[in-house]
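Hello, quick one for you while I still have it in my head. Could you read through the record and tell me how the tokens relate to the sequence? No rush at all, and the record is pasted right below.
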Amino acid sequence: MAKVSIGVNMEFVRHDDKPFEWGVEKAAELGYEYVEPMVHLGRELLSEAGYFHSVSMFDDPLRIRRACEKAGVKVSALSGHCPLCKPEVSTEYLKQAIRFAAEIGTSIVNTDEGPKPEWTTEEEDHVLMRYVLKEAAAVAEPRKILIGLEPHQQYSKTPDGLDRIYHLVDSPAIGINFDTGNSYLAGQDPYAWLERVKDRLVHVHAKDISIQQSEAERGKVTGTPVGCACGDGVIDWERVIAICRSVDREEIVLSVECGTIEQAARSIEHLRPLAG
């Protein structure tokens, strides 16, 4: 039986124009035990100027570790989303994210297949994804890093589609980062799907969907960047947590994905009593 812990994806401070360290302190202030940082390659203006929470993988990875240790929080996973269908983008990015995670001291890097090239066929896309995942798994396995595949794009919007990506490479490094909101918006039953993947589950994106967004988008999209506050939408969190507790792992972190600090505050107020 797994312990269920509560974390927050750093997207909750996206619109506050503050640096990573500020966001970590805010997460700790709200009572979160874990954070999920987002990383990027190269340099970009907003992060360099301290106006955005993403951390460059050109920086010292100990920057993340020190900020979290200072605030008294841990890293549940790295948000390493990259288009697996585009190996010229994702191969080196994902490999570097894995090495970065190992230095930070977290064991999970989350990703998805991303937008596909306009000119490739479905079969070609799966060959390209297999190439990227094979290269990434070779870096992840000796470092004991898990790659969490998320339902988020054109092929992973169904249970069969996500399973097909998962089975492209036979590696103990590959698991599932289940997103409650994306699965719901794709028109699926998120609880049945979570039960289906629970033996491969490594991490959860705790994303709730408002009734308004559900009515406007369910069955029309494959995901959404962030949801509403957990408890304000359509997801049954008591049911989600019960399934997560039944997983044969030491711990599963619910990483809240919402768009504002106020939503993050309401989310942890709702989830913490349920997680016990």
In short: The CA atoms of residues 65 and 104 lie 5 Å apart. The chain has one domain: 3-259. The chain has a mean pLDDT of 97. The domain at 3-259 is CATH 3.20.20.150 (TIM Barrel).
